[in-house]
From TrEMBL:
Single GO MF descriptor: oligo-1,6-glucosidase activity
Protein name: oligo-1,6-glucosidase
Enzyme Commission no: 3.2.1.10
Substrates-to-products reaction catalysed: Hydrolysis of (1->6)-alpha-D-glucosidic linkages in some oligosaccharides produced from starch and glycogen by alpha-amylase, and in isomaltose
Organism: Paenibacillus konkukensis
Domain Glycosyl hydrolase family 13 catalytic: 16-420
Record-linked Pfam families: Alpha-amylase, Malt_amylase_C
Amino acid sequence: MNNMNRTWWKESVVYQIYPRSFQDSNGDGVGDIPGIISRLDYLKQLGVDVIWLSPVYESPNDDNGYDISNYQSIMDEFGTLDDWEQLLAGLHSRGMKLIMDLVVNHSSDEHVWFAESRKSKDNPYRDYYIWRDGKDGREPNNWSSFFSGPAWELDERTGQYFLHLFSKKQPDLNWENETVRREVYDMMTWWLDKGIDGFRMDVINLISKVEGLPDAAGEGDYQFGGEYFMNGPRIHEFLQEMNREVLSKYDIMTVGETIGVTPDEAVKYVGEDRGELNMVFQFELMDIDSGPGGKWNIQPWTLPEFKRIMSKWQNELYGRGWNSLYLNNHDQPRMVSRFGNDGPYRKESAKMLATLLHTLQGTPYIYQGEELGMTNVRFDSIDQYRDIETLNMFNEYREAGHSVESIMASIYGKGRDNARTPMQWSAAPHGGFTTGTPWLTVNPNYTRINAEEAMNDPDSVFHYYRRLIELRKRHDVIVYGKYELLLEQDEQIYAYTRTLGDERLLVVLNFRETPVTFELPDSVPSGSAERLIGNYELQEGWNLQALPLRPYEAQVFKLN
Ligand code: NOJ
């Protein structure tokens, strides 16, 4: 197998829509499908090929749609199946594709399967979920939930506990049960037959749990039990079955969200001879600023470490599997606040990071608002936050005696609502997102940072993204070329080449606000160079032997 097997999904750029926050059309303060339809020309203008739609299914919204109560119907707040059909048609008629979010590690507790399951131990749906007796008056094991507290909930009706790796309104489905798998495959087929172009699979590497559900190691009440449910014993069997039964029958793309995978593990999911998935989202870069206390324990990150992680994935998947590339999404802080500069160099650093995203090997994923350089938000009070993960953590940390101030600092840095504040379309009230009251307050910087302003400014972050996407379509080397890191230990410059046959690109990025000079290492054959794109104009007479880089400067050259 080699990375030169050409496919449309390697050459595509994906744009993620978080529907709740994209565009409201009826003034209820919640984004909806007709709202998305009204923005299709904007997406077309940006030039993206594929839309990944975060969940739009019926849901009580304990976790904003990642808790699904009916997989084959649309959430009322978002519209109807008819609206959705129009969205699909609107995308297809513009030459764009649609991938849907597949959330099948768990359902909502309000799904009819769970409503039945909890009724009695001998209900036909009992075994759709993971039920166990308690142990010594406590949970069946010591696993913690991703959203604080234990991963088990006692259900009074039958006196047993059910497993929920996320909130207690998100019971885990029992993939050991063949009927559950059949139901999932039938549901997937139903969507595929409607003409969708693939799936993003939510925490798909958690669906196979180790038999016996052993206790996790460690002191204290509840422990992360990842070793017993990440990349579990039957995961590849399940995905190969899914591929055989469903995926292989369609020309689609799939991307699995896989927490904690290494490159070697990733290859098992995406190797082209494996018959599983096309790509996975890995988390290594997303963990770069987490300390020993986990995600909320924020630590400074360094550029050499950043480069080490990116390069590791570029090199280790080369010729073995396809990378997905992302710097933020609906679960992560805004990239410009985290890895760039959301103050005076917001635009420059957003473009610099965009240059990185679009010139590595892999399929780039843009998260809504990233193309405007949208930033993190700092609400004064916890009451303004909506995310269950954030709110649960706040309560847990308060009970453990942390100060409000220190908790808020973590939320400002890492909270998921940073990414979920509504799209900033214009300087109109609420950024033009809604005529009503938004479900989550719009970032007050919408008066400066918004799509209308960006569309009218030829030098905007938006137009830079558009040009990067165009560039990718013109140069195979961007998609398929081999990556080679330069200046590995440099604390400020990230530079690399991409090579395909005799075509070679050089990418030079300044990750700091201080100027610095780039010197082309001797190892890179230099002839003449042509500048392809950059976030500053180059000075007359520039050369790569000594190229002065301004704050957050990014330049891409074609070497001849
Ligand atoms: C990952 C999703 O991206 C996140 O938003 C969600 O909370 C969890 N999976 C649970 O579905």
